[in-house]
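Changelog entry

Holo records now carry the ligand SMILES as an explicit input line rather than a separate metadata file. Below, a converted record for zinc ion, shown in the new format.
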Amino acid sequence: MTASPAPRRSVAATHAGPPSSRRPSVQTVAAVLARDGTCTFPGCRVPAFRCDLDHVVAPRPGDEQGHDAGNLVALCRHHRVVRARDGWRPALLADGTVRWTAPSGHTYVRPSAWRSA
Ligand SMILES: [Zn+2]
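Structure line, unchanged by the conversion:
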């Protein structure tokens, strides 16, 4: 993923804020669920509303954009474990497609629910 060109808030403001944004907002959760539709792991059909939202890239403390929809994908409990245990790596593309890289190096493209609906 490429970084967005313009940071939306200053470093000072980031540090001054309370740690209230650690959980994604209701709007963010709704956006991710609508975009993903199901667990984003290749072939998985668990509905997104039964999934957890997992960070594509683990946000650093104070990195509020790390909790945006652009850094979150729906993953069921099982596939959260598989990802962490086996080292699958997701990449979230601009159109909502999630590209997974398997431990073997193979990649799997999982289109967003917007496109496949
Ligand atoms: Zn799954």
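Spot-checked after migration. Residues 36 and 113 are 5 Å apart (CA to CA). The beta strands are 52-55, 72-75, 89-92, 98-101, 107-110.
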